[in-house]
Write a structure and sequence with these properties.
- The chain folds into two domains: 2-234, outer membrane lipoprotein receptor (LolB), chain A (Clam), CATH 2.50.20.10; 255-389, Glutaredoxin.
- The chain is 23% helix and 33% strand.
- It is built from ten helices and 19 strands.
- The strands form two sheets. The protein has a twelve-stranded mixed sheet, with helices on one face. A seven-stranded mixed sheet has the order 14-13-17-16-15-18-19.
- The longest helix has 23 residues, at 391-413.
Length: 421
């Protein structure tokens, strides 16, 4: 441990690439899976030059990407979800674990699980006091038998912590980190919420590790994109307003009751209409059915609301199976079938569950894809429509106000002049 910490503390410069890997054994098949979901790259030069790129949920629509770059004069930071804003601050004379990310919200996003779990190499590089611990449990570390990765034996140290055991895999020649097993005992129920794994673990692999390399000065520059602003703090934009298609008349959909009667916009005119699209092999549809049934029970005797569970099953699934399935899930609302696929063709329903609210004038008011956890928000939305409110218009007015406030706040946070003379 002392040798490894000394190597990082004495390094004049450093670069690496690292990947957080989730490894598990799947209960149903017994097969092993390894899934990379976070990548980082680090370039560092003493005393105060740094470039950290941190990407979570890689290769998914929810990918989060952050950059922190210090050129020794200023520190610039960016966040993918806050485009066209670059946070800028004066670079400290010497970087430390406490000051290398000066923007508070960004620091929280990157280091929410602690620097020792997220960027342990940065923690080692920036800790100048040899007496201070970098990892919990350093004073109780114990050696494990060497183990191989890619045919190379590595020293291993096990460190206890409240979150579980941390294991450091240390290069026997250079005394740099090759792998770190992350303690996750406090996250086991969350990770294995459906008991789908017999065992699982999380580790960071460090690749392309270089000590004292020559690093080009351009590495420590973060360019200002066109139309981007330099800001004193990140200002998150308001949520998007309602899509343009909301508030407009619905197309000529057509569903059929189990008795063969047709349900169309014309037959529903003058009522607030709730359409829940589902099918018999849809787990989230099953999970939300008791919630939607509470909504149905709330309005079933009002006379103002027509509530239909719209089955998107094909003709291969007969009416009896569809009806028994909905009933077994706890759904007692009226059932119709979309055998002509007008939900897909006319109403643009592409996934289940999807729920649509239509007002008394046959205008589409709400289009929600996904699971409903509680009945209250939907009950309130239906009551607004029963009272004659046009929800998209009201939401667009709120969005316009939020956007104006956002622009004012962003103007106040914008840096106009150079922060360093």
């Amino acid at each position: 441990m002392e040798k490894m910490r000394g190597v990082y503390r004495e390094a004049k410069s450093y670069t690496d690439n690292a990947t957080v890997v989730f490894h598990a054994v799947v209960r149903s098949t017994g097969g092993e899976v390894e899934t990379p979901f976070t990548r980082t790259s680090v370039a560092f030069e003493r005393p105060n030059k740094l470039h950290v790129t941190y990407t979570k949920n890689i290769s998914s629509p929810e990918e989060e990407r952050y950059e922190v770059v210090s050129n020794g004069v200023v520190v610039r930071s960016s966040a993918k979800e806050i485009p066209l804003q670059i946070h800028e601050a004066i670079a400290p004379l010497e970087l430390s674990a406490e000051n290398f990310i000066p923007e508070p919200a960004l620091r929280g996003a990157v280091l929410e699980n602690g620097i020792e779990n997220t960027l342990p190499q940065v923690a080692l590089l920036l800790e100048s006091d040899k007496e201070r611990t970098v990892f919990p449990g350093e004073d109780q570390a114990r050696t494990l038998a060497d183990a191989e990765l890619d045919g190379i034996p590595y020293h291993r140290l096990e460190l206890p912590s409240p979150e579980g055991k941390r294991v450091l895999w240390i290069d026997p020649q250079r005394f740099t980190l090759r792998r770190m097993e992350i303690p996750i005992d406090d996250q086991r129920e969350q990770i294995n919420d459906h008991n789908q794994y017999t065992k699982f673990s999380l580790w960071i692999d460090f690749d392309s590790v270089m000590l004292d390399p020559e690093i080009e000065s351009a590495t420590f520059q973060l360019a200002l994109p066109e139309k981007a602003r330099r800001v004193r703090r990140f200002i998150p934009p308001p949520p998007a307003g309602p899509p343009e298609f909301l508030g407009k008349p619905v197309g000529p959909f057509s569903f059929a009751t189990l008795d063969g009667e047709e349900v169309t916009p014309e037959t529903l005119a003058g009522k607030v209409v709730v359409l829940d699209f589902w099918f018999t092999n849809c787990p989230p549809c099953k999970a939300q059915t008791p919630v939607l049934n509470q909504v149905y029970e709330h309005f079933k005797d009002s006379g103002d609301v027509a509530f239909y569970a719209v089955s998107t099953d094909s003709r291969v699934v007969d009416n009896e199976v569809v009806a028994k399935t909905l009933l077994s899930w706890g759904g007692h609302m009226p059932l119709v079938r979309d055998l002509r696929q007008t939900g897909n063709r006319i109403l643009n329903v592409r996934k289940t569950p999807s729920l649509l609210l239509i007002d008394r004038e046959s205008r589409l008011q709400t289009f929600q894809v996904g699971f409903h956890q509680t009945p209250e928000p939907l009950i309130k939305a239906i009551e607004r429509l029963v009272d004659g409110e046009d929800i998209p218009t009201a939401e667009r007015e709120k969005y316009a106000q939020a956007l104006a406030k956002y622009e004012q706040t962003l103007d106040a946070a914008t840096i106009e002049d150079p922060i360093v003379p």
